[in-house]
Amino acid sequence: MRNFFESGRGWLNEATNDPWFADFAQLQGIEMDGKDFEPNIKPLLEKALEEGTWVLLAGHEIGAEGTQTTRTKMLEQLMAYVKEVHPEIWLAPVGEIAAYVRQQRKINHQNIIKDLTFYSSFDQGTDADFGKGDLGLYTANSYDKPDDARSGIQVADIYLGSDQGRFGTGLVFKRKTKESLYYRAKENVNYKVKEMAGTISFWLSLNPEEDLEPGYCDPIQITDVGYNDAAFWVDFSNKNPRLFRMGVFGDLNIWNPTNISPDVNPDFNNRLIVAKDRPFGHDVWTHIAIVYSQLNTQSPGKATFYVNGLLQGEREIPESFTWDLDKAKIFLGLNYVGRMDDLAIFTRALNQQELNAIYQLEGGISSLLEDD
Predict the structure, then answer these.
(1) Which one of 2.60.40.790, 2.60.120.200, 3.60.15.10, 3.30.70.60 gives the CATH number of domain 114-371?
(2) Residue 295 contacts residue 301 (beta carbons within 8 Å)
C-alpha cells in the first residue's frame, strides 16, 4: 500500500489521526454514512481542534437518505460550520492533506537532523556513523583508567550482534565487566562555556531485575571526571526492584564542596529524577532521552528526562558545568547487561514532539540521514 499510494485508510475506526505519527498506509477512517452533524460529527471536530488531530471521514453514496449513504444535510451543516464557526479547519480530500502532512513531517525531521553532532547506529561497525569529533570506539581496562585504552571492542562479552538491535545490529553486553567502552566527547558533545544545551537519545533492551548483576549500572555516562562532577547519566539502582534514574550534576566543588558521599548525602538523591514509567523487558526496546538547556548561563539550567517520549520529570541545574574536553568521554554500558542501539547526540534541547518523532521512526536516526 505505502509503495503505491499517497495514503490508505481503515473503515469503521473510532479514533482521529495524529498528523505527526499516523501511518499513511493505515489512516483511521471514521464512518460518516447515516450520521447527523450535531450529535455525531461536530463532537469529533471539537475534540480534534482541542487535541490538534486530523479527522478522516469516509462514506459511500451521497444523498438525502439510504443505506451506506452520506446525508447531504450533514455535509451542508459541516461546510457551514467550517466556513462560519471554525475557518481554521482545513476541509480537503484526504490525498491533498496527506501530501501536506508528509511534507511537514519531512521538514520536522530535517530540523532534527541538522542539529545532530554524533550518531552511532552500530550497523557499520564500532565507529560512529557521524560525528563532529573522533568517531572511534575505545575499550579501557577500567573506568578509573580510561586513557589506558585500545581501539574497538576488546572484551569477549561485549560485541556487535547482528539483528540484535532495535534497528539491525545492536551493541550487546552479555555480562558485567571491569573494562569500559567509550567514545570521545570532544566535539561530539556540544560543550559550551556559555549557554550549553543538547539532547542524548538511545535505546535499551533488558529486564533489569533478571539481567543485571549486583551493583549500580550506568547504561550511559558522559563526563570528564566522574558521575557526580559535571556529568550526564542514567542508571539502574543497585537492588531489586531496580529504580531507573536520570542524573545531571554540575561542578562537584559547587554543589557538594566537601565531597560528602552519596550514601550519607540526601542532596545527591534529591537531585535525581526517578522514572515513573519502566517499560523494560526481554525483547522489549525502550527509548531514553536526556534533554538539557541553559547550562552555564546566569539563569538556572534545566535537565529533563523522557522514556518512550513520555515526560518523567525535570529539575534545575543551578551550578556551572566545567569540562576538560580532552578528558571528556561518552561511557557506554558501565556494569550493564543488556542491549543498546541507535545512540544520537544533538546540539540543542529537542522538544517532546521531536522526541516522539524519533521514538516513532521505523528505521531509526539512520533513516533521517538517508532522507537528508
Answers:
(1) 2.60.120.200
(2) yes
